[in-house]
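User: Quick sanity check before I run a bigger batch. Here is a single chain. Can you write out its predicted 3D structure?
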Amino acid sequence: MAATKVTIWNEFIHEVEHDAVKKVYPDGIHQAIAKGIAGLGEFEIKTATLREKNHGLSEEILSNTDVLIWWGHMAHDQVADATVDMVQKHVLNGMGLIVLHSGHFSKIFKRLMGTHASLKWREADEKERLWNLEPAHPIMAGIPDYFELEQEEMYGERFDIPTPDKLLMVSWFQGGEVFRSACTWQRGHGRVFYFRPGHETFPTYYNEHVLRIIANASRWARRRVTIDSSKAPNSRELEPVPNPTKEHL
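Assistant: Done. Predicted structure follows.
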């Protein structure tokens, strides 16, 4: 199988403007993920950030992307609607999309979910325990029954999303909440995966299990077809029809 073409999109604002985040991710969250998954599969990896021209994305780039990884937080409203339209089109046509952590409030995730994607949250530097519910699923390959992150931001239910096609992990937090933390959906011809961990002030994207899940999800969500189903073409009959009807819209 050919290498999976991965584009990692990140706002890259926290790391520039906040010293506490820059200390954890000096080259940006996108680069940490890129370096972390590079040795976990056959990947061709590109990165893109918000303040690049066209947010670092274009028709050419997305046409040559098997799976787009998306991290955003403080600048969801700065992503141009034209870019959201373009990404949505490519997902419906077959490109995979992985949305991480606070990307749940991104325009593209809310567009594809058709919901507010709201949730409860708390920054308390508390332990998160993630439980593996589907060990036979490809995204969970090599992941133990559970693993722990010693410091994370809490996300709690209710998470306003459509019922996932597959719920792969549930998180428990030290403060008592639980959360559906790894979910999959099919949208058009494309596969979508949401994965909860990844607050910018914690070294979550250096964790071996988090990186393996992202790598596994990149292979699972990769583009398998490219089919433009935005049009409804008139179709000729395959065999003679005794009384063909008039052409209609």
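The radius of gyration is 20 Å.

User: Great, the batch can go ahead then.
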